[in-house]
Specification:
about 290 residues; Ubiquitin-like (UB roll); six-stranded mixed beta sheet
């Protein structure tokens, strides 16, 4: 049985028809403890799979590492339990010599749920993490038609969502071509983004200049922050952003797009990176748009 999409025996009920028993695939959810230098750093609820990417991305989000060589080793904890499930739910992370250990102020005092990537922060100040990368001068410019094509590409690549209907997705696209670079799924939005960022770190791609991050749900403050920490100049979501997400995007000079559903979208920040020109609009500049 897959830990990513375990199945359970359920009873399907349809009005006017006889109830029937059948197997149904679910979105896997298990705790993952991250230990840095032998000390517990965080416990998060996640969908098993791409755990090394998740751990690496989490360290980027928390400003612990910014380059591949700063993370020396990652391995599952040996002898954690005779139970295979427990054995693969603890990751030991070793930083390279000279890389500072995480400050206790950014450690999580309790586990983060699959719906909250900021839960457990030891202080309010630690919520805003300073990025080593600046997206202000990123030259990315994309057409509205390219952006409108992304939701279909994201949906087509969500293999686990097809089975369960209960997983979020985060995908990274090349801003010049619209090519899908990587997609990760997880029961938590923030975990899916961490898995994408962790993949990029391990591939030596940070900062992700010229890239577009797209998420299958809403755009929260934490997702904008994770994108900024990875040097991503544009974040797109199929649903709405929060007010704090828009504030952070404006402050960081990131482009934030919400309600991206072909053929329309809403640009909440950084409209200068979106080319909305067409025969009907004549390519009106942002200041020329009617209110």
């Amino acid at each position: 049985m897959s830990r990513m999409t375990p199945d359970r025996l359920v009873v399907r009920v349809t009005v006017g028809q006889a109830a029937r028993r059948e197997r149904d695939a679910l979105a896997g959810e298990e705790p993952l403890e991250l230990r840095v230098g032998g000390r517990s750093f965080a416990v998060t609820m996640r969908t098993p799979g791409a755990d090394f990417d998740l751990a690496a991305g989490f360290l980027v989000s928390e400003a612990v590492v910014t380059r591949t060589e700063q993370l020396a080793t990652m391995r599952y904890c040996d002898g954690a339990s005779v139970d295979e499930v427990n054995r693969f739910n603890i990751l030991e992370l070793t930083l390279a010599p000279g890389v500072a250990a995480p400050n206790e102020s950014v450690a999580r005092s309790f586990f983060t749920t699959s719906s909250c990537g900021l839960c457990g922060k030891a202080s309010i100040d630690a919520v805003r993490t300073k990025s080593a990368f600046d997206v202000r001068d990123d030259p990315l410019r994309v057409t509205a038609s390219l952006l409108a094509s992304l939701p279909a590409k994201l949906r087509a690549a969500q293999s686990m969502f097809e089975k369960t209907g209960g997983l979020h997705a985060a995908a990274l696209f090349d801003g010049a071509t619209g090519e899908l670079l990587v997609l990760r799924e997880d029961v938590g939005r923030h975990n899916a983004v961490d898995k994408v960022v962790g993949w990029a770190l391990r591939e030596g791609r940070l900062p992700l200049r010229g890239a577009i991050l797209m998420v299958s749900g809403r755009a929260s403050f934490e997702l904008v922050q994770k994108a900024v920490m990875a040097g991503i100049p544009m974040l797109c979501a199929v649903s709405a952003p929060s007010s704090l997400a828009v504030d952070l995007a404006e402050e960081s000079k990131m482009t934030l797009v919400g309600f991206l559903r072909d053929p329309s979208m809403v640009v909440y920040a950084g409209f200068e990176r979106v080319d909305s020109s067409s025969p009907s609009t004549g390519g009106a500049a942002p200041e020329e748009l009617p209110l």
